[in-house]
Write a structure and sequence with these properties.
Blueprint (H helix, E strand, L loop, with lengths): L3 H6 L2 H5 L10 H6 L10 H6 L17 H18 L29 H12 L10 H15 L20 H11 L25 H19 L4 H11 L8 H16 L3 H8 L3 H18 L8 H13 L6 H17 L5 H6 L2 H24 L42 H13 L3 H7 L15 H11 L9 H24 L8 H23 L7 H4 L5 H13 L6 H15 L10 H20 L9 H11 L52 H7 L4 H4 L11
Helix pairs in contact: 9-11, 11-13, 11-14, 13-14, 14-15, 14-17, 15-17, 17-18, 18-21, 19-21, 21-22, 22-24, 22-25, 24-26, 26-27
Length: about 700
Amino acid sequence: MPPPEQRASTPTSSRLAGRSPRVLACVLCQQRKVKCDRKFPCANCVRAGAQCVPTLGPRPRRRRFPERELLDRVRRYEDLLRQNNIPFEPLHAPVAEDSRVLETGYHARSEDPMVGEERDVAVKAEPVYAAKLNYWKVLNSVSQDAEEADSDDDSEDGNDLTHYQFTLGGNAVNKMFDEAYKNSDEGFIFGSRKANVDLSTLHPDQVQIFKLWQIYLDNVDPLLKVTHTPTLQARIICALSDLTRISSELEALLFSVYCVAIMSLDDEECRTSFGSPRKELLRGYQFGCQQALLNCNVLRTGDRECLTALFLYLVSVRYETDPRSSSSMLGVAIRIAQRMSIHDEKANARCSALEGEMRRRLWWSLIMFDNRIGEMSDHKTSMLIPTWDCSKPCNLADNDVQPEMKDLPAAQAGPTEALFIAARSELGEFLRHSAFHLDFVNPSLKAVARDTKGDGMPDLERRIEDKYLRLCNPDNPLHYLTIWTIRGFLAKHRLLEEYSRFSPAQQSEAQRNIASSCAMRILESDTKLMRSPLTKRYRWHVHMYFPFPAHLHLIQDLKKRPMQEHAHEMWKAMSENAEIRFEDMHRFHPLSDIVSRDILQAWEAYQAASGGHGETVSPPWIVKSARTNFNNPNNDTGICSAEQPNDLEVAPSLSMSTEHGIPNLLSGMEGFGSAASGFGGYSDIFEQAVLEGDAYQSGWPTMSFYPMW
């Protein structure tokens, strides 16, 4: 045996020289992928009567593509720099980063402890979203790496498949599903597809199509911004030449535009402009939209326009649908959006500037609408949470973003046609990371929420006022709506923040005053929106936000503190809002007795307290109306009547009707759903914060709604 030094210097070829040469499978067996007995001629060739040709040498091993190896190494180094929070210039722009790069939550130790502390603070200041692994990409990478690491022994059986490149992925699986289920019926939401329906006959004539399109642009588009006017309008003009040949996605989008346009009008406007009742027009266009959505396979779609059509359809059926049902259907739409990665900013950034921005607008509109529906059914279903990273839509007009652009222009400093959605998204971005919001939605998510910057809600109010509202022109309808809607939202969430701080211990006068001030601001903002002729075209949106809990808060506070400093202003705010909000309430409304009784009890407490000071106060409108209801239960005027059906079950046929076809006033209240949805119990915090002591005698705790409205 040679010494170690000699063995170390012996070349590999000399060690292998004594081995017998390996016999490989013959050429024909390798081609046929059958086992070869490695004799010459082999049994397979003898049996087949074919010429057996031995393999001359082993197949050269395929080496990794050198550029790929280099890129993987660069990505690894960039990942290490990222983990240690070291600034660097990446090889590629962030939009092109590989989705396999993981941003871990730990950081390298610094030799200087102060540097390490500063680094941790800097990292915690912004949310860290780990890049999502792509299952198919990982699977293919692992398969290819294993394939390259195979030894030559794997090909000895003639079963060498390494020269085949299998690239599995989501697209391949989707194609398989499309083929396997091409004849399936997905009608469990919209009903079965009507095979004999020619949808081209359900479209209005060209003049009415343009009229509906203009109504949509005036009444609906500024509040949602889920369609790009310049490009869609050009496509609509082209489609009108032959409606039988348009794509199913565009047809669904057209019908959804008809639906929301009619939804934004009252019955008189529909009769004047289209010669038919609003209800009849809605029924026809919603049926056409349902069939068009089925035609484009909405439940498995990957098309943004198809999802947009579904969203607009859900907005149009909002007033005729139980909020619990709306919430379920919105869950379907959000799941479709997640499958399309619309919630993922990395996926949006890979798109063109226009497509990426439209995806952001659609996601935020979906989420904010879902949040409102959640407030009216079960607030814990809201998706306004910190588990996604879609960026806020920019304050840009549609003409500022063109299809050929690669990058978005800078957001405008002043108001644009996207003013409303930009301001609303700013508020939503703050809320989904706020502890007081998550307390009501999902407290466990507070651990992953980003710390809100500045001084919480007061800082947010200042920022939105300076960035958006102070630049608005109050004579502009959209600007006026934005000013008072956003201010009402801010007051609502300030009140919710106060509720989240509530403890069973006695509240101070200052705390009570702050909460009541917020409730008054909510009512004052809503009254301005309801009274102004500037908001008539947007009244469909205003009706969604009925401020009933603000009324409830003030009534209960006035019963406890009838002579507080701002009692007169509180009665005035309630009366002015009730006069315009309650005037159409049906006499069989389930809140009739409760509303009137509590209003009168609060006023009696106020009179008793003021009488001791020798004051004589005339009752406001809301008190006069409540008295009328009790004295004349059959009267249809005023707030409501004390008369109720004997069985106490409010049937849909007894629901209230307004100019927008809202089935009942409860359609704008949290948690009530429809009038027939039943009554459960308050959320604990709201019940304790507002309904203390004598509130249990009034029957309020038997109501079921959540504190955000």
